[in-house]
Amino acid sequence: MRHTLVGVSDTSSEPPRTVGVRDVAARAGVSRQTVSRVLNDHPEVAAETRERVLAAMAELGYRMNNAARALGTRRSRTLGVLATDALHYGPSRSIAALEASAREAGYWLSAAFADAGDADAVVAAVDHLVMQGVEGIVVVAPHAHTLDALDAVRIGVPVVTLHAADRGARGLSVDQAAGARLAVAALADAGHTSIAHLAGPADWLEAESRAEGFAAELAARGLAAGPVLEGDWTAGSGYAAVEAVRGSGVTAVFVANDQMALGLLGGLHEAGLTVPGDISVVGFDDTPDAAYYWPKLTTVRQDFAELARRAVAAVLAGSAEAPASDLPPVAPVLVTRDSVAPPR
Predict the structure, then answer these.
(1) Domains of the chain with CATH codes
(2) What is the value of pTM for the model shown?
(3) Rounded average pLDDT over 194-210
């Protein structure tokens, strides 16, 4: 039999009351204005008072409301990230590095994703971030289409772009052409004079810059322009390029990213060719797995952490009209392993 107790209300389903500034002030024995000053890092709060307020916040489980804080201070402590093609290694690593750099600076990230080829989607993503009250936006934009869409709108907060090679005054990048030249130099220094390039997709700005660096280094050394094959960044496209590489008669290949290099290594092995005995291979990115390919891959390392640090600093120091981004491109580094040897 079920009994009901009259006069006793069941409050188990009621949500717990949110702890507010008034509660913190009462626990710390200070005014609400003092709590507000602590929240906003006001310099005129005594150290002992600040510690007492912070201790009260921790004890009560106080959580700051960024939206409310932004209304009073015009600072949300949040940066926006607009990303396209975020599943690829470079953009995904950059987003992770941006999150770490923003957190180190006392900020959080709010992310929006858009199709690079859809200008309306790019503008809508920017509008969404601005409506969130972000203090600046970092655009992870590997495509020219994304930059074209951004150039057509007035955003109203500082904007910095990544993965746009060297295009635009507000862009920050790893020097892609210099990295390609390092890769070609490693092959030429080993004695190779017939070198192919397995490039990334033609609509990617970084792929274009790497192809330009490939051609420039060959020309600087007086070597004939090598064949350029187009891939799509995937290991599958590297695997599919094996027959073209074999048919070209080259002794070495500069591959525009490590994933395509992985597919190429596997395909060459299946075709009965050895690396680096028959063909030398250099990749780009230095993904965490590259040191465990067979053979271990010589590749070009990009410093995504430094790129993210610069991006966060530029957004925080900049204005909507002129982001502070006067630094030169981040220098890439050649990582020498086992996939390069002199030609037979």
Answers:
(1) 21-64 (1.10.260.40), 78-174+304-317 (3.40.50.2300), 176-302 (3.40.50.2300)
(2) 0.77
(3) 94
